[in-house]
């Protein structure tokens, strides 16, 4: 068993089959199939069940995914460690973020990080829930995650670094008929059409709470991709409850933003493994801790 075989194995897992994996890693499909067969022979187990033209992970295959990712990560860490004496001039940082923390504080944090380490390539995957972010980090698909939750989270085997709390705001179409001032109370939501994210977020929890408690509030749409919410607001389709990280973008595009009272907060945290991080990930976590302290 060698690192190349493990890389091929993970390519088949990540791309859902031999054909797409072969295209992505630029290898002939028969060569890829032979490499996986050699890996299965060396381990003495089947890693995939062949079903028609597709493949499904076997139990042994599922158990190999996380250790395989960690082995390749450790090799990358070893290579990066050899280069770290040159002040992180090269390397890669794999991250995952939920949408709202992905606007802020991620934008400002990435900007500061790249100013310090311009040779580091930062790759950011997307996730919709805190559980998805934790799973990315736990399985090794990403080294660092940013998530938002209704309360500070704790999870076994991983390290959580609280970063900031963002109050929820109401984002409204330009010229919306709302009371003057920069805040809205729960009763001000009467008669409003709300655009909401799908269940699982604090914003959706707030909207569901309004629907149950305040007469006249209407749920106009459930949107999985939060990047679609602001255009719908600007088009006059409805109003949206979002974290304050969306405020600068919303105001620049002409939407009206009001703070909600009493306040609800999205707690933003960084999650990572407690050890075994690459030099780039360690540097980002250290910068995040400094960010929090300031």
UniProtKB/TrEMBL annotation:
Domain of life: Bacteria
CDD domains: PBP2_LTTR_substrate
One Gene Ontology molecular-function label: DNA-binding transcription factor activity
Gene3D superfamilies: 3.40.190.290, Winged helix-like DNA-binding domain superfamily/Winged helix DNA-binding domain
Keyword Magnesium set for record: no
Pfam assignment, any one: HTH_1
InterPro entries: HTH-type_LysR_regulators, LysR_HTH_N, LysR_subst-bd, WH-like_DNA-bd_sf, WH_DNA-bd_sf
Any one GO cellular component localisation term in the record: cytosol
Keywords, alphabetical: DNA-binding, Transcription, Transcription regulation
Stretches assigned to the HTH lysR-type domain: 1-58
Family in the record: Belongs to the LysR transcriptional regulatory family.
Protein name per its UniProtKB record: DNA-binding transcriptional LysR family regulator
Biological source species: Glycomyces artemisiae
């Amino acid at each position: 068993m060698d690192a190349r075989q493990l890389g091929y194995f993970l390519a088949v897992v990540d791309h859902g089959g031999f054909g797409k994996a072969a295209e992505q890693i630029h290898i002939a499909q028969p060569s890829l199939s032979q490499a996986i067969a050699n890996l299965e022979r060396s381990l003495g187990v089947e890693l995939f069940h062949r079903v028609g033209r597709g493949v499904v992970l076997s139990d042994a295959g599922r158990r190999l995914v996380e250790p395989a990712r960690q082995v390749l990560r450790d090799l990358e860490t070893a290579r990066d460690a050899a280069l770290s004496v040159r002040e992180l001039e090269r390397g890669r940082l794999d991250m995952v973020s939920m949408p709202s923390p992905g606007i802020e504080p991620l934008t400002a944090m990435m900007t500061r990080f790249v100013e310090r380490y311009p040779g580091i390539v930062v790759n950011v995957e997307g996730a919709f829930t805190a559980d998805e972010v934790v799973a990315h980090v736990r399985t090794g698909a990403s080294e660092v995650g940013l998530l938002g939750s209704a309360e500070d989270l704790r999870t076994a085997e991983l390290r959580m670094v609280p970063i900031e709390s963002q109050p929820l705001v109401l984002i409204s179409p330009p010229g919306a008929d709302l009371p003057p001032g920069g805040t809205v109370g729960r009763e001000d939501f009467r008669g409003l059409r709300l655009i909401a994210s799908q269940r699982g977020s604090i914003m959706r929890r707030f909207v569901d709470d309004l629907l149950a408690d305040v007469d006249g509030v209407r749920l106009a749409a459930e949107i999985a991709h939060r990047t679609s919410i602001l255009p719908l607001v600007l088009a006059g389709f409805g109003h949206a409850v979002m974290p304050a990280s969306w405020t600068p973008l919303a105001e620049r595009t002409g939407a009206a933003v009001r703070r909600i009272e009493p306040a609800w907060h999205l707690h933003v945290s960084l999650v990572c493994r407690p050890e075994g991080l690459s030099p780039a990930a360690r540097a980002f976590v250290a910068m995040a801790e400094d960010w929090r302290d300031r």
